[in-house]
Each structure stands twice: as structure tokens, then as C-alpha cells.
């Protein structure tokens, strides 16, 4: 090798390691370190303590919000799958160009500005919003209801609307991967459509469902903008509590500890998704 | 799939249609509102107007935020494409340390943005870097790096090894092979990755809110305005951004789906 090439290769090596280490790993390690610090009269005390974690587990307020947020995000994942599965299944019954055109159509809303979608959904769900107008117009409601604005329902509905596309894609891919020969064999052996679905299609698509659930859950629990925008006073989620530690409460170490709890849930959800998303092979 | 009974097909089609309506309703509301007057959920269909677009062109706050967004986007694209390509070239065909560093690169993408943003916020404070556009650009680059890296790496892996070997057989040096063979083969993946990186940077809100100084990008500006309830010209902006993002994605798809898959495999 020539010296210029060797020097270039050394430079590339340094760059390759420096960038991720300096700007990703180091900040996260410092952040983790902060969770063991404490605050005294507005200044951060750099002495290690487990106090933040003890407070998180023992203070009923924080743990209750934490738990409620997990339940909320599991509900979002469940609703997304209930809507996405039939849609993804329908797509796989289509032939050729239509299948992918419709898939694109259902994925395009992902690209739209997140903040703008949250705002638009809020205006749909609001007291004078389109949803209330429609429900009153159809005679389902007597007068506009506050059921869908500034509470947990609003967060649930908004997150569901935002995250459905993330559920459609993995389920569609899993369904598409099921070998046609299995379905034809099942048909030849005299199974009804329902039997084929329950015994072949559904079990083979479960890894896709697991990935979809894990995606949606992780994105929902990590979201802060939606609860902040549509949650109001009664829609309080873990993300908002966490953020408040960095703003009004000014307790960065405690906020860091709450973030570690959030990260632990996210990592667990990703691992569960990976585990079940790959457990069954679909190859023949 | 085998043929379904008609009833279940209708049922499935109905749910798919419902999902499409749910997904598109938040996109249509601002667009309709940008051309018609909407008050208390009622649309006045009788008087289409482009007044909102005119007042948008005079909104200096928004135009300044748009400029900031573009500056951040362009810098992020340059930084992430250069470093993402270097990383992909470096890790391609190398085993040691690859999985660990690849995991680190993907961390900001896997972690909730609020965690990445807060970690960077504390980091910048610890090293004494003032919050500014520079910190925003670093935050965005770290966030989109995984996408560019992955795009380029996938193209590298699908690239035929024989091209590089032929180049060496014909007497080319390492640099010549890189400039004449590897880079031209990667260029469309780099362009596609760049477009995706720009689109992600254009929409990134959470990290930006946390690490920005006095200048805000478009989503952050919108975020601040929405919390107070905002003026109708924002609807016009929303309609324009929608068209812009769709255009970006069509472009990205064009560059990322290889046109000569067959010839590359031979």
C-alpha cells in the first residue's frame, strides 16, 4: 500500500469510530450517569446516589402514570393491529400493480409532517370539530361531546391514527411471504376458507403481527408531542412527566432516571418484537 | 391468496376504505381549510380563496423558519451522506467491531427522540457548546445517519465483487478503483439516501425543540404557534409542505429502486 492510501485508511478508521462514539455513545453514557446524580437548591450534585430510582419506584404518582402510559400504548398497538390486519390482508388478495399502488397509498400519510397531523387531528376531534359535527348530524349524539378532546381518549385516538401505517407494513410483508402452495394444498385437502385462514394464514402471519405491535408500542410510548398537544390537563403521560423534570421542575437527574425507565421499556418491547417476529420461519 | 367468499371481500374492502379515510382525514382538513373559510367545523364552500397563500408569502416568521429548516437540511444531508458513506465503506466486508458500532449508529433511530434529544442537550452543556444551529445540525445528522448508512451499505452489498477485481486486474490503483468504479455505482443510493435524510430532517421536531437556540425550524415554529392557536395562512403552508414531501418521496423511490438490477447481478 502507498503511504497516502495508508494515511487515508487511518483517517477513515478514525472518522468511522469517532462520529458514532462521540455524538451517540458518549451523550447516552453521560445521560445515564446523570440519573445517579441529585439536585440541591437548583444545582446538580455530582455524587452518585440511587435516590432517583428509589423515588421512582416508591412514589405512587410516578409509577402510576408510568403504568397507565404502558397500558395506553398497548391499547394503541392493539387497535392499530385490529385495523391494519384486515387492510393488509385485503391488499394481499389484490393482484399485481393494484396491490402495491394501494400499499403506497396507505403508507404515504407517514411522510406528512408529524406536527401538522397532530394539529389537524386535534381540530377534527375538538368540540367544534368534524367528528362531533358528524356524530350530531347522524343523530348519535345530542350535542357536541368533550369525550375526544384534552384527555386520554384524545391521545389514544391521535396516536392510533398516526401509527396505523407502521402496523400495516410488517403485517403485509408477513402475509405476502406465505407460500401460495400451502394455501392451495389446504384448499385441495378440502379445508374451508375460514379453516385455511385460521390454521395456515393466521399462524404464519403472527411474526409480522409481533413486529407491528412492537413498532407501534415503541413509537407510541416514546412520543411526547401528541400527549402534549391533545392531552390537556387530564391526559398526562409518562413522556410529559419526564419532560417537566427538564423544564418547570428543573430536576435533570430525576428526569434522566425517568428516561432510563422509559428506555428500559422500549428495549424490552424491541426485544420481544424481535423474538416473536423471527420465531417461525415461513420458508418451505 | 385463494378466492374469498364475496361477503368477506366486501368486509375487508370496507375496513381498508375506513383505514384510508382515517389516514387521509388529517391531510385533507388543512388543505380544504387553505382554500375555504372554515368556522366551527362548517366549511363555506361558496367562496374559494387563495388569500391564505398571499398572507403566507408575507409572514416573515414562517419564511425565516423555512430558511433555517433548509440550511439545517442541506448541512445535515452533506454531513450524513459523507459520514454515512464512509462508515458503509469501512464496515463493508469487515467483521471486527462492526456489529457493536452498527448498533451505536442505529441507537438514535431506535431510542425515543425525547431521550436522544435530552442526552444531546446534557452533552452539549457538559462540553460547553452553546445551543445554536450547529447543535441542531449535529442532532439531525446523528438521527438520520443510520438511514444513509443502511442505504449505501445495501447497495455496496448488492454490488458485484468482480467489478472491483477487474479494475485491479487492469492495473488500476485503489484510488482509481474508488473514483471510477465504486463511487459511480453508489451514487444513486447516495442520492436516494440524501433525499430521505433531507425529508427526515425537514420533519424532525423533538430533538430540534430540545437542542435549538433562538432560531427555530419550521416544525418547531409551527409547534410553538399551534399551542396558542394559529392563523389560517398556516393551512396554506401545510398544503404546500404536503405536495413537497410527496414529491421528495417519489424522487427518493426513483433513486433507490435500482433500474439495472439484472445487469448488476450477472
UniProtKB/TrEMBL annotation, chain A:
PROSITE patterns (UniProt xref): ABC_TM1
Cellular localization per UniProt: Cell membrane
Keyword Nucleotide-binding: no
Membrane topology, record value: Multi-pass membrane protein
Main location: membrane
Keywords, in A-Z order: Cell membrane, Membrane, Transmembrane, Transmembrane helix, Transport
Residue ranges crossing the lipid bilayer per the database entry: 12-37, 65-88, 100-121, 154-175, 196-221, 252-272
The ABC transmembrane type-1 domain, residue ranges: 66-273
Domain of life of the native organism: Bacteria
InterPro entries given in the database record: MetI-like, MetI-like_sf
Family: Belongs to the binding-protein-dependent transport system permease family. CysTW subfamily.
Protein name: ABC transporter permease
Organism: Mesorhizobium shangrilense
From TrEMBL, chain B:
Keyword presence, Ribonucleoprotein: no
Main location per the UniProt record: membrane
Keyword Transmembrane helix: yes
Membrane topology: Multi-pass membrane protein
Keywords of this entry: Cell membrane, Membrane, Transmembrane, Transmembrane helix, Transport
Matching PROSITE patterns: ABC_TM1
Pfam families: BPD_transp_1 (PF00528)
InterPro entries the UniProt entry points to: Bact_Polyamine_Transport, MetI-like, MetI-like_sf
Boundaries of every ABC transmembrane type-1 domain copy: 66-252
Annotated transmembrane regions: 65-91, 103-124, 136-156, 177-200, 236-257
Protein name: ABC transporter permease
Species whose genome carries this gene: Mesorhizobium shangrilense
Amino acid at each position: 500500500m502507498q503511504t497516502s492510501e495508508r494515511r487515508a485508511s487511518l483517517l477513515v478508521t478514525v472518522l468511522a469510530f469517532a462520529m458514532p462514539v462521540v455524538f451517540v455513545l458518549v451523550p447516552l453514557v453521560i445521560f445515564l450517569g446523570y440519573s445517579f446524580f441529585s439536585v440541591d437548591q437548583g444545582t446538580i450534585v455530582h455524587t452518585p446516589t440511587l435516590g432517583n430510582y428509589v423515588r421512582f419506584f416508591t412514589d405512587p404518582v410516578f409509577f402510576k402514570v408510568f403504568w397507565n402510559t404502558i397500558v395506553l400504548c398497548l391499547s394503541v398497538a392493539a387497535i392499530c393491529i385490529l385495523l391494519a390486519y384486515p387492510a393488509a390482508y385485503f391488499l394481499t388478495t389484490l393482484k399485481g400493480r393494484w396491490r402495491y399502488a394501494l400499499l403506497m397509498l396507505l403508507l404515504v400519510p407517514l411522510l406528512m409532517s408529524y406536527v401538522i397531523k397532530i394539529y389537524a387531528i386535534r381540530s377534527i376531534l375538538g368540540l367544534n370539530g368534524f367528528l362531533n359535527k358528524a356524530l350530531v348530524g347522524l343523530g348519535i349524539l345530542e350535542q357536541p361531546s368533550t369525550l375526544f378532546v384534552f384527555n386520554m381518549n384524545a391521545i389514544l385516538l391521535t396516536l392510533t391514527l398516526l401509527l396505523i401505517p407502521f402496523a400495516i407494513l410488517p403485517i403485509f410483508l408477513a402475509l405476502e411471504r406465505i407460500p401460495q402452495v400451502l394455501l392451495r394444498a389446504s384448499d385441495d385437502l378440502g379445508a374451508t376458507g375460514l379453516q385455511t385462514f385460521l390454521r395456515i394464514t393466521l399462524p404464519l402471519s403472527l411474526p409480522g403481527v409481533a413486529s407491528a405491535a412492537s413498532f407501534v408500542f415503541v413509537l407510541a410510548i416514546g412520543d411526547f408531542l401528541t400527549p402534549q398537544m391533545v392531552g390537556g390537563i387530564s391526559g398526562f403521560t409518562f413522556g410529559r412527566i419526564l419532560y417537566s423534570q427538564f423544564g418547570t421542575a428543573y430536576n435533570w437527574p430525576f428526569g434522566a432516571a425517568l428516561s432510563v425507565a422509559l428506555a428500559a421499556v422500549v428495549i424490552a418491547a424491541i426485544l420481544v418484537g424481535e423474538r416473536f417476529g423471527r420465531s417461525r420461519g415461513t420458508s418451505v | 391468496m385463494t378466492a374469498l367468499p364475496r361477503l368477506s371481500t366486501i368486509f375487508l374492502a370496507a375496513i381498508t376504505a375506513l383505514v384510508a379515510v382515517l389516514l387521509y382525514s388529517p391531510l385533507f382538513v388543512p388543505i380544504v381549510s387553505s382554500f375555504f373559510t372554515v368556522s366551527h367545523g362548517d366549511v363555506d364552500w361558496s367562496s374559494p380563496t387563495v388569500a391564505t397563500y398571499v398572507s403566507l408569502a408575507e409572514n416573515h416568521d414562517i419564511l425565516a423558519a423555512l430558511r433555517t429548516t433548509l440550511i439545517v437540511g442541506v448541512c445535515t444531508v452533506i454531513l450524513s451522506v459523507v459520514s454515512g458513506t464512509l462508515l458503509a465503506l469501512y464496515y463493508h466486508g469487515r467483521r471486527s467491531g462492526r456489529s457493536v458500532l452498527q448498533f451505536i449508529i442505529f441507537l438514535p433511530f431506535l431510542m425515543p427522540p425525547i431521550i436522544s434529544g435530552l442526552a444531546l442537550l446534557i452533552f452539549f452543556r457538559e462540553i460547553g457548546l452553546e445551543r445554536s444551529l450547529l447543535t441542531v445540525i449535529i442532532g439531525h445528522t446523528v438521527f438520520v445517519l443510520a438511514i444513509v448508512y443502511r442505504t449505501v451499505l445495501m447497495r455496496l452489498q448488492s454490488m458485484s465483487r468482480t467489478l472491483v477485481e477487474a479494475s485491479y486486474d487492469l492495473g488500476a490503483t485503489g484510488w482509481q478503483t474508488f473514483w471510477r468504479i465504486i463511487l459511480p455505482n453508489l451514487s444513486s443510493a447516495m442520492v436516494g439516501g440524501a433525499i430521505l435524510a433531507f425529508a427526515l430532517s425537514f420533519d424532525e421536531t423533538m430533538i430540534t425543540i430540545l437542542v435549538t437556540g433562538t432560531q427555530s425550524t419550521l416544525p418547531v415554529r409551527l409547534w410553538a404557534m399551534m399551542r396558542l392557536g394559529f392563523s389560517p395562512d398556516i393551512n396554506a403552508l401545510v398544503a404546500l409542505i404536503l405536495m413537497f414531501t410527496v414529491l421528495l418521496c417519489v424522487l427518493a423511490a426513483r433513486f433507490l429502486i435500482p433500474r439495472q438490477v439484472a445487469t448488476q447481478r450477472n
